[in-house]
């Protein structure tokens, strides 16, 4: 119980620090969203002082208000789900933009990351258990795929399966001509979205499975030399039980710790992949926010990523304490 109490306290303090830093960073940067928005309005026509004052009030960038008051108001707006107005997609609220892009990223990048982790750890455990067999020879090929630049692998898949063979669409998360009104809740739309997501998901799996496989294989080789494995073999336990209960469970602990960080950053999406495939996820939204100096949108995206990373690490800490009892007692 002491272990879980300490972890909860640690993550609460970390959450407060992360949110406070998310509040301060945009204010330490030169310029502000209101100035950028006013400059864009001036390109379209005359901007009156009343319009300037209203823009500052709307975007919460008044210079006369003390920083401490802005900090309190920021917490109040955040707790009410108000993350501001996007300059790039004015007058759309940041929460609506993130809510529209987040499901695409979670479903695609999340499922692809989980599949990559399961395949890598599973095949790596077998490769370490059966050293020298054909399974062990998969390590060099998957390592080569991991070393290929991410964007280059995506372009190869597009050129091969979309342009040459025309098996899959080139860009987009769904067929905009078949669904001109946008995403809808229907089996036809889900099937079309899955069809458009196959190549992006395959890019993620091929690029990341090699790391999980190699790490798990090396940990299996190290674990198989431990005394408790030798004892289990001397007791005459079945090889499958030794593989699953003794060897794989202990060898997977470092991979689980790394998976928690990877799973947390799933919400950040894959900027390169989403740019290549024009996929409507968080990564593409973040790229638009950075290129257009949309501070409110950037701040909202960074906040969501921070919360997700902390939540994923907290859940994995709980799982880690369950798998390895030593973590609960060494506090």
Automatic annotation (TrEMBL):
Pfam families, per the entry: BPD_transp_1
Gene3D superfamilies for the chain: MetI-like (1.10.3720.10)
Transmembrane annotation, as ranges: 7-25, 101-129, 150-174, 194-214, 251-277, 297-323
Domain of life, per lineage: Bacteria
PROSITE patterns: ABC_TM1
Record key words, sorted: Membrane, Transmembrane, Transmembrane helix, Transport
Database matches in InterPro entries: MetI-like, MetI-like_sf
Compartments in which it is found: Cell membrane; Membrane
Subcellular location, principal: membrane
Membrane topology note: Multi-pass membrane protein
CDD domains (alphabetical): TM_PBP2
ABC transmembrane type-1 domain boundaries: 102-316
BP GO annotations: transmembrane transport
One cellular component (GO) term of this entry: plasma membrane
Family under the similarity heading: Belongs to the binding-protein-dependent transport system permease family.
PANTHER family (UniProt xref): OLIGOPEPTIDE TRANSPORT SYSTEM PERMEASE PROTEIN
Annotated protein name in UniProt: ABC transporter permease
Organism: Agromyces protaetiae
